[in-house]
Amino acid sequence: AKFLSRIAGGEWDAVILTHEAFTRVPLRPDTQRTYLDREMSSLRAQLDAAAEAGMARNTVKQIEESLANAEAKLQQQIDSMDDEIGVFLEDTGIDYLFLDEAHEFKNLRTVSAIPGAAIQGSAKATKLHMVLDYLRATNESERVATLATGTPIANSVTEAYVLKRYLAPQLLEEMGLDAFDNWAATFGEVVSQLEPDPKGDGYKYKARFSRFFNVPELMAGYRTFADVQMAEDLNLPTPPVRENEDGQRGETVLIPPTPAQRQFIKELPHQPWVRKPGGVLKALGEGLRASVDLDLVDATEALRNLGLNVTADQVMSRGPVDGG
To answer: Out of 72-81, 134-143, 292-301, which region has the weakest mean confidence (pLDDT)?
Structure first.
């Protein structure tokens, strides 16, 4: 409260906050209720559309419960706000947001019938979306924020859609693609293919977002709000990489497995837990770790001359490159 009072009472060009402090800056209850009502109404409309598109009934019920819990939690936060709060974001005079490491706010709640595409949502992402919504409502310009990140799309194609919701919601509305599944149907293809069942019961068909379509149109919309800097644009210094005999960057060093590694991998399918739920995934993980170094799976007789150790020996034997 003291810090917010200093913001509101000063003539500042900029105010620097940590991510944690930003998520704690309060908005007025009326502002939060307006956002909550509109956002939940939109999400439920998207859920209805996803259900009509064939979303599994149990998935629909889970998302309905998730939305209800999220709404109740936000409403509880609004109702429990300290009556003694004297300064809100609306009182500070802040009219623009510059957010560094913006990928930490990528988990904005998203409803989708596509397996693996939906996002449960996080409180910090909801807070950012709420602040941007307020800034747009109170400023003449639609450009109210800069989000800086080196990994705008890290794990899921849904993150590209979330970026547009943050920075260009008017574009999604104009194109009639404010619902994720509509956006995905326009710019992507969903493919069903056989995948190993996590429980170890053979294979099952899973629908996944496979690839992008209409890429020129997608990038044209993306470039309306994104300033993309590639490595060749920045011309940053990078360490040299040796070429192999075929002229390709990097080199491959084959390390024969030890008897202990062979024995460990051979025994994995016969472990008592392998047929339990999640056992196959656990076995895959332990096998991958053991192939690097048996120390990674807490083996009692791990040999220390493989994987990471061989890499370290290779590096040390070559000495410094180009002065370091």
So the answer is: 292-301
Supply the DSSP symbol for 112.
Answer: -
Dist. CA 324–CA 314, nearest whole Å: 15
pLDDT value at position 323?
46
Tell whether the model's pLDDT for residue 209 goes beyond 80. Answer: no
Model pLDDT for residues 24-47, shown as the tens digit of each residue: 999 998 999 999 888 888 888 888
**Distance (Å, rounded) from C-alpha 182 to C-alpha 180?**
5
Sign of the C-alpha dihedral computed for residues 284, 287, 288 and 294 taken in this order: positive
Spatial distance between the Cα atoms of 48 and 45, rounded to a whole number of angstroms: 5
Q: Residue count of the chain, please give it.
A: 324
Rg (CA), the chain: 26
CA–CA separation, 96 and 132 (whole Å): 9
List the beta strands (DSSP E) in 57-184.
97-99, 145-147
Strand (E) positions, 94-168? 97-99, 145-147
- 145-147 and 97-99 strand pairing: parallel
Angle between helices 29-52 and 57-79 (to 10 degrees): 180
d(CA 173, CA 188): 18
In terms of pLDDT, which residue wins out, 56 or 30? Answer: 30
